[in-house]
Amino acid sequence: MINYLRSKFGIADKNEVIVLVHGLLRTKYSMYRLGRYLRRHGYIVYLYGYPSTKFNIVELSNHMQHFLNTFTEQHADKKIHFVTHSMGGIISREALRNFSDLPYFGSLVMLAPPNKGSPIAYSLLKRFPFLAQILKPLPQLSNDPFSFIHQVHIPTNIQIGVIAAKYDRKVPPELTHIAGEKDHITLRTNHTLIINSRKAKKAILNFISSGKF
User: Fold this and answer.
1) How far apart are CA 52 and CA 175, in angstroms?
2) Predicted TM-score (pTM) of this structure
3) Is 42 left (phi over 0), alpha (psi -120 to 50) or beta?
4) Which of 59, 65, 89, 167 is a plausible cystine mate for 84, CB 3.0–4.6 Å?
5) Where are the domains of the chain?
6) Where are the strands (E) in the chain, listed by range?
7) Which of 161, 167, 120 is nearest to 139 (CA)?
8) pLDDT band at residue 1, thresholds of 50, 70 and 90?
9) 3-state class of 142 per DSSP?
10) C-alpha count within 13 angstroms, C-beta hemisphere, residue 46
11) What's the CA gap between 77 and 40, in Å, rounded?
12) What integer pLDDT is reported at residue 38 of this predicted model?
């Protein structure tokens, strides 16, 4: 099982770790090519996986908190960054709620995050309510005004950058913004392909190193 990317993808010459967090209905392997790219640029890369359909956002973020308790101790001498896709950004935001006093977080770069909810989630639940039992996080991802998505923690001890996809039907660019974001760009891609977009990869590196895309 792959967690840390192996040395054959490049020498980790930076004392910095990037945790990659996938989205709903995906696995950590969906972030593999992006991770390989970041590894080749000198970062230690960890692929974080979780059962995206079996638990709601609160439960998934609690699981990630337990992971971070150990992970931050193991890498206490390193700066830790997060690069997320879609729902992975929401889970990461909520998981960082109990780490507000840690000084060694660097960047949280979110690709196509439903920071203000997803209209597709709202529509699907209206048409097919039973999906809430199959895809447990779906109700909390809805852009309904009363959805849990509007209560998710916004970390302040990490610089936040958002990369939206222009042709994203699941999360339109205007719904990706978040209070406190340091930079925001929109690329000519869609919700799925943004993970492996060359421009997105370069933008991620720029933001981690300089705080700007």
Assistant:
1) 21
2) 0.95
3) left
4) 89
5) 7-210
6) 16-21, 44-48, 79-85, 105-111, 159-165, 183-187
7) 120
8) low
9) strand
10) 15
11) 21
12) 97
pLDDT tens-digit series, residues 100-118:
767 789 999 999 999 999 9
- Type of residue at 164: A
**Within 10 A of 6 (CB to CB), how many other CB atoms are there?**
10
- With DSSP H G I counted as helix, E B as strand and the rest as coil, what are the percentages for the chain, rounded to 5? 40, 20, 40
Residue carrying structure tokens 């990869």: 201
Residue 55 is which amino acid?
F
pLDDT tens for 70-101 read: 999 999 999 999 999 999 999 999 999 988 76
Q: What's the residue count for the chain?
A: 213
137, two tokens: 């996080």
Q: How far is CA 175 from CA 117, 141, 189, in A?
A: 7, 12, 16
At the second CATH level, the architecture of 7-210 is 3-Layer(aba) Sandwich (3.40)
User: Considering the chain, what is the average pLDDT of its residues?
Assistant: 95
Cβ 178 vs Cβ 113: under 8 Å? yes
Given a cut of 80, whether residue 13 has pLDDT beyond it is yes
